[in-house]
């Protein structure tokens, strides 16, 4: 166990229970990057402050509280009761932070899955429920469950609205070819490994200059009505080229919105967030000219531990003809990543 002397009150008494080094390591690994994402975190803070009249004397539930910052801000705006739920042992760190901010009389931190708890009715649900490409997170299901189970009629979800967009991007000219790296690896043929790489979405930050088509809205998420079966969907797309370039990636990004404030976006032309952008490798030579269009169908299928994506697309111009074909991708990670 870590030495808790540094966590003593001014009178020398122990302020909190000891927390294991493993839990602190998990906190740093999973939540330090979240706290460094000031675009998102300060956006939540501004939203809570701008809507202080909703939080005043309200009962608030934070789903997947992590460090508990959203709960702390809700309490500072006069919430009568805040319930902060976190499934991992990181809730111990949140409990410490609540005590050190002297808000334990308002905030109750509970370790557990929302689906397994018994909670009172709440006026507001706050949550960082968004994940990579918006959907890669299990917190989304937890928020939907909490909404159906405990949110009062007329209650609010922060954030409630989000939009998922698609576009196409090019690869920087100076970036080496990844196919050459995998298929000519020290005299070995690693085509199989390259195929796996191609079918795995990449989470990375693009420069806005790499986006070469207009964006298309794929899906609008309204958490006041969104159901679990709607988390898997199929939608057609048509992406119009803005200039001549060689297409390399299908690109997904999203935005989300709070009442009274401008949307927070993961668009490449905006300051980066923890979610960056999600890139899907294009497996064909695709030279675009201005006003060319790539047409197809985008499908996402949600499973317990992963997301499957099917992108069926076709393209034709004076340079190339690519008939309709399917590319498949899978986004997966550790069991608690989704």
UniProtKB/TrEMBL annotation:
InterPro entries: Arg_MeTrfase, Methyltransf_25, PRMT_dom, SAM-dependent_MTases_sf. The keyword Protein transport does not apply. Its EC number is 2.1.1.-. The gene is Dmoj\GI11605. Residues 60-155 form the Methyltransferase domain. This is Uncharacterized protein. Gene3D superfamilies: Hnrnp arginine n-methyltransferase1, Vaccinia Virus protein VP39. SUPFAM superfamilies: S-adenosyl-L-methionine-dependent methyltransferases. PROSITE patterns: PIPLC_X_DOMAIN, SAM_MT_PRMT. Transmembrane segments: none annotated. Signal peptide: none annotated. GO terms for molecular function: histone methyltransferase activity; protein-arginine omega-N asymmetric methyltransferase activity; protein-arginine omega-N monomethyltransferase activity. GO terms for biological process: methylation. Keywords: Methyltransferase, S-adenosyl-L-methionine, Transferase. Residues 162-317 form the Protein arginine N-methyltransferase domain. Pfam families: Methyltransf_25, PRMT_C. GO terms for cellular component: nucleus.
């Amino acid at each position: 166990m870590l030495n808790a002397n540094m966590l003593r009150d001014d009178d020398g008494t122990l302020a909190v229970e000891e927390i294991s080094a493993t839990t602190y390591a998990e906190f740093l690994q999973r939540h330090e990057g979240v706290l460094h994402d000031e675009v998102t975190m300060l956006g939540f803070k501004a939203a809570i402050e701008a809507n202080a009249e909703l939080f005043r004397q309200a009962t608030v539930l934070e789903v997947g509280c992590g460090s508990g910052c959203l709960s702390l801000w809700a309490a500072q705006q006069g919430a009568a009761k805040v319930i902060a739920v976190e499934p991992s042992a990181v809730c111990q760190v949140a409990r410490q932070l609540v005590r050190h901010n002297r808000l334990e009389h308002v905030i109750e931190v509970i370790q557990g899955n929302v689906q397994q708890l018994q909670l009172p009715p709440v006026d507001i649900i706050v949550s960082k429920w968004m994940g990579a490409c918006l959907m890669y997170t299990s917190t989304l299901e937890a928020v939907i469950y909490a909404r159906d189970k405990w949110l009062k009629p007329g209650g609010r979800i922060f954030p409630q609205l989000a939009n998922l967009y698609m576009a196409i991007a090019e690869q920087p000219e100076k970036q080496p070819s990844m196919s050459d790296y995998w298929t000519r690896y020290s005299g070995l043929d690693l085509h199989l490994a390259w195929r796996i790489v191609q079918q795995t979405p990449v989470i990375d930050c693009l420069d806005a200059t790499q986006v070469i088509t207009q964006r298309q809205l794929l899906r609008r998420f309204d958490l006041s009505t969104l159901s679990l079966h709607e988390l898997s969907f199929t939608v057609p797309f048509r992406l119009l080229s803005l200039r001549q370039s060689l297409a390399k990636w299908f690109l997904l990004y999203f935005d989300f919105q709070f009442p009274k404030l401008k949307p927070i976006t993961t668009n490449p032309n905006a300051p980066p967030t923890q979610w960056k952008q999600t890139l899907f490798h294009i497996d064909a030579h695709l030279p675009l000219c201005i006003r060319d269009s790539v047409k197809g169908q985008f499908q996402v299928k949600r499973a317990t531990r992963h997301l499957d994506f099917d992108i069926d697309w076709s393209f034709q111009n004076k340079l190339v003809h690519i008939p309709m074909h399917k590319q498949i991708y899978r986004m997966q990670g550790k069991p608690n990543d989704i």
